[in-house]
Amino acid sequence: MIIENRELENMANRCRINIIKMIHAAKAGHPGGSLSSIDLITGLYGTSLNFDVNNPDWDDRDRFIMSKGHASPAIYSILHEVGFLEESDFMSFRKLGSICQGHVDMKWTNGVDFSAGSLGMGLSFGLGCSFAAKLDDSDRKIWVMVGDGETQEGQLWEAIMAADFHNAGNLKMIIDRNKIQNDDFVSKQMEIGDLSIKLKSFGWEVKEINGHNMKEIIESIKWAEIDNGRPKAILANTVKGKGVSFMENNPSFHGMAPNDEQLKIAMEELS
């Protein structure tokens, strides 16, 4: 699937609308990190990720591991765009028996390749997928998205170190650097410093971009696709709650649903 930049931007906007709608309907969820990451996810699904809607368990598909799994509305919105989910599926978000759980779960949802929970585990899982691809002599790529608050987790850095040691060139990490985590700004919770310098010191190649500029997103994905034997990271500077004025850079909307009046404002701004 290769889509032009303008259509990708339009697709990302439709995803934003559906993110807000499903979280409002559920009266719970995580809008901020879903909105900050959706341009990146749309760019990946629209230009590079190799998958088959008619065969979701295809062995040689690329893998997308959503380590920050609480941003599941972003995943459900893009899975709807590419044909895995119906609107009725994502509008049942967080309801008992729904295939769209609060955190992404590969047991419930076609197109999901990782069951998320506690943060920090996705890159380790992705590294395992990287090893499996090499054992299968496969060219499939493994993409992992993590949050910047998640980089405070020790397990993540174990995986970062191991990926360099094992020459995991088929492993690609996207960091959603929106600068806000669960309770507050990352700088107030625990400052993480210059991630680019840290990753490079661990043997990774790094490209820093504006995570809302579709041209930069696509260029960085093309850069990361090339396997030169070294793991690569896209460090994407983003805005928490991007696209909805009262959610932007607002820690309260890390995990709070909009009320009826806020839904109306958000829909007007995104229309």
Secondary structure elements and pairings:
Blueprint: H1 5-26, H2 31-47, E1 63-66, H3 72-82, H4 87-90, H5 122-135, E2 142-147, H6 154-165, E3 171-177, H7 186-189, H8 195-201, E4 205-210, H9 214-225, E5 232-237, H10 260-270
Parallel strand pairs: 1-2, 2-3, 3-5, 4-5
Kindly describe this structure:
The protein has 271 residues and is α/β, with parallel strands linked by helices. The protein has one domain (5-270): 3-Layer(aba) Sandwich (Rossmann fold), CATH 3.40.50.970. Helices cover 42% and strands 11% of the residues. It has 10 helices and 5 strands. It has helices at residues 5-26, 31-47, 72-82, 87-90, 122-135, 154-165, 186-189, 195-201, 214-225, 260-270, and strands at residues 63-66, 142-147, 171-177, 205-210, 232-237. A 5-stranded parallel sheet has the order 1-2-3-5-4, with helices on both faces. Strand 2, helix 6 and strand 3 (171-177) form a beta-alpha-beta unit. The longest helix is centred in the first third of the chain and has 22 residues, at 5-26. It is globular. The model has no long low-confidence stretch (mean pLDDT 97).
What's this model, at a glance?
The protein is an alpha/beta fold and 271 residues long.
CATH H-tier superfamily: Thiamin diphosphate (ThDP)-binding fold, Pyr/PP domains
Taking all Cα atoms into account, the compactness measure Rg is 17 Å
CATH topology: Rossmann fold
What coarse outline follows from CA principal-axis ratios? globular
